[in-house]
Design goal:
About 35% of the residues lie in helices and about 25% in strands. By secondary structure, it is α/β, with parallel strands linked by helices. The radius of gyration is 18 Å and the shape is globular.
């Protein structure tokens, strides 16, 4: 599988968010004037209390949620303003990993991984599930990467939660994305499997040069595996910087107290 291009500039930018605002109900903002610059490398983890807009932020980026106002600049394109074919083409360049996996349970593991290429083949071939040999070879390579080669022909509904999430990650990478989003990818998993999934995502981000933005409730996991952390409270950004710079004081500001801190 061809790797996404790697920038030689360590300060390269994957995504810029300017003045992003979201209201589901008029006058009740979920996101308040979000301004972020996402680096073109590593893992950016978004943390914060439940209901503070983490998932909304992730889903605004690929327009699963419609922003109320603001810009989402992705390699010169304002994703917030795209419609129709232009939006579909932009989404092909952004992989997505879901909290509840979003696999087609009756299909095999291989078929689910190959579905990451549906945006690149004709509807007729998609209906027949006729993929180019290069895509099939790339899918086997990815199954080896995520440790599921022996499950290629098993139905997705026969897998454990951790195995399903590995399939979801492989499917997202099959798009050959220039950016990958993950909406709480470990929240349904046990602690050991959560660590394994984070290790896998870091490995893929590094080896395939794909920047990843994920939202996560587990602060220790974010500190351990993320390159950068965005801390949110009440729909606004209160910390945006390297994982190593996230102090207990900032965590108190993000989560509204310190009783939960060890």
């Amino acid at each position: 599988m061809a790797e996404a291009p790697q920038s030689a500039d360590p300060g390269a930018v994957a995504l810029e968010i300017r003045g992003l605002h979201k209201e589901y109900r008029r006058g009740v903002p979920v996101l308040r004037d979000i301004n972020l610059t996402i680096a073109a490398r590593g893992i950016t983890a978004v943390i914060g209390p439940s209901g503070t807009g983490k998932s909304t932020l992730i889903r605004c980026i690929n327009r699963l949620v419609e922003p109320t106002s603001g810009q989402i600049l992705f390699h010169g394109l304002d994703l917030a303003g795209l419609r129709g074919k232009a939006l579909r083409q932009a989404r092909r360049r952004i992989g997505m990993v879901f909290q509840e996996y979003n696999l087609v349970e009756r299909l095999t593991v291989m078929e689910n991984v190959l579905s990451g290429r549906l945006g690149y083949i004709s509807p007729f071939k998609a209906w027949l599930r006729k993929y180019p040999q290069d895509d099939i070879d790339a899918a086997f390579d990815l199954l080896d990467t995520v440790g599921l080669t022996q499950f290629a022909n098993q139905r997705a509904d026969a897998l454990s939660g951790g195995q399903r999430q590995r399939v979801g990650i492989a499917r997202a990478v099959m798009q050959k994305p220039e950016l990958m989003l993950a909406d709480e990818p470990t929240s349904s998993l046990d602690p050991k499997t959560s660590v394994e999934i984070m290790e896998l995502m870091v490995s893929i981000a590094d080896s395939r040069h794909i920047p990843v933005i994920l939202n996560i409730h587990n602060v220790p996991l974010a500190r351990r595996f993320a390159t950068y952390i965005v801390g949110m409270a009440d729909g606004a950004v209160v910390y945006d910087g390297p994982a190593g710079g996230l102090s207990d004081g900032k965590l108190e500001q993000i989560y509204g107290g310190k009783d939960w801190l060890e």
